[in-house]
Design a protein that fits this description.
Elements lengths: L1 H17 L9 E4 L3 E4 L5 E5 L6 E2 L1 E4 L5 E2 L10 E2 L8 E4 L8 E3 L4 E2 L8 E2 L8 E5 L8 E4 L10 H51 L9 H16 L38 E4 L5 H10 L6 H11 L3 H10 L4 H31 L3 H13 L3 E4 L3
Parallel strand pairs: 2-4
Antiparallel strand pairs: 1-2, 3-5, 6-7, 8-9, 10-11, 12-13, 14-15
Helix pairs in contact: 2-3, 4-7, 5-7, 6-7
Length: 378
């Protein structure tokens, strides 16, 4: 009996081993290894498999904004939609046939496989030029200027070049107009002076035809001598040793525009108020890096007391974040000079560089928060 049972089992195993494996056509999937069913299209899933081989079972749709399937498949459920991680922005919402698409915001990038967005570089190192802009997946690419494109090939470089060219042409035209105007006024004044001298010469050389006024001729001669003395010369035939000395009149090179001392504003005296808010002072102090233009920043830091080595080192330590480098410069200055001394250095530097609008904005805000008083020197 046991031998017979073993023979039956062996026959069943041999029959199963001899049966060919289940093979499905393209666009079909195997169900339980028994039959092939047609796949459901993208945006749907298999709710019930087919009962007849090579036919379509029952497909149900995915829900927009909740789940999806991107391709035809034999899946028995849809994939859940992903949500954008913090620091990313959604560029395409999830649909029944596509997942949510997220990317880094403008000014940031995330290479494949990264965990969080990284800030793009704002400019290339010295001696290199930009060859590729920053995208959502790659940083700005730079190359040596001999092999890469020049800054003028970049659209922003072209715009800046055009703007500065127009400004330069305008300045040249204004200078030419002003020079022409001053020259014309100067010539007009010289002509009037020559005309008046000619009239004086004619009147002085004319004979005195009025016998009743014998002093008229002498008066004219006296005026002429007085005029000669005023300009530092003597009349013909006179002895210069006997002539009284008269100071030379200092005349402007351009009679139409006499020299006037320039009205140079005097630097105000800034005094800190006792009990001021250090929190507000620090906020205003560090916010200065958002007010000063990039090409003025290094010069301002040198005016405040940082060395070129300090500035270049901090730039090197933060090559991809110039705003952080500027923050570290301000922090270094504050650590060396103290919060009061650093503030005074910054205000003095702004004044020396003639950044008057920034100087006024900063001091007005400090006055508004009762941190300083400002008095004009006599």
């Amino acid at each position: 009996m046991a031998v017979a049972l073993r023979l039956v089992l062996l026959a069943a195993l041999l029959k199963k081993a001899e049966s060919p494996p289940l093979r499905c056509n393209d666009g079909e999937y195997p169900y339980n290894g028994q039959r092939c069913c047609k796949m459901c299209r993208a945006g749907t899933y298999v709710e019930e498999a087919c009962t007849i081989p090579h036919t379509l079972g029952h497909c149900s749709p995915c829900t927009n904004g909740e789940d999806y399937t991107e391709h035809e498949s034999g899946l028995n459920q849809c994939f859940p939609c992903e949500k954008c991680k913090p620091g990313y922005v959604m560029v395409k919402a999830c649909t029944a046939t596509s997942n949510t698409k997220c990317q880094c915001p403008e000014g940031y990038y995330c290479p494949p496989g990264c965990e969080e967005c990284v800030k793009c570089r704002k400019r290339c190192p010295k001696g290199e030029v930009q060859v590729k802009s920053c995208s959502s997946t790659t940083d700005m690419e730079c190359s040596p200027s001999s092999t890469g494109t020049t800054d003028s090939a970049h659209p922003m470089g072209i715009i800046i070049t055009v703007v500065f060219s127009v400004i330069g042409i305008g300045i040249v035209i204004m200078i030419a107009i002003l020079f022409k105007f001053r020259k014309r006024n100067s010539l007009s004044t010289l002509e009037r002076v020559k005309e008046s001298k000619s009239l004086i010469s004619v009147n002085s050389d004319a004979p005195n035809t009025n016998p009743e006024m014998p002093g008229l001729r002498n008066k004219g001669s006296q005026n002429e001598e007085s005029s000669n003395l005023m300009v530092g010369s003597t009349s013909e035939g006179s002895d210069p040793r006997k002539a009284p000395s008269a100071p030379m009149l200092q005349q402007s090179e351009n009679p139409a525009f006499p020299s006037v001392p320039p009205n140079i504003p005097k630097k105000p005296v800034v005094k800190l108020i006792d009990g001021y808010s250090k929190t507000e002072l620090n906020r205003i102090y560090f916010n200065l890096r958002n007010m000063v233009l990039l090409h003025d920043w290094s010069e301002l830091m040198r005016k405040c007391g940082l060395t070129n080595n300090d500035i270049e080192t901090l730039k090197f330590d933060h090559p991809r974040d110039i705003n952080e480098a500027h923050y570290q410069m301000l922090l270094t200055l504050q650590n060396r000079k103290g919060i009061d001394g650093a503030l005074r250095k910054l205000l003095d530097g702004l004044w020396e560089l003639k950044l008057m609008s920034i100087y006024e904005n900063v001091t007005n805000e400090l006055i508004h928060h009762k941190i300083i008083t400002r008095e004009t020197r006599d």
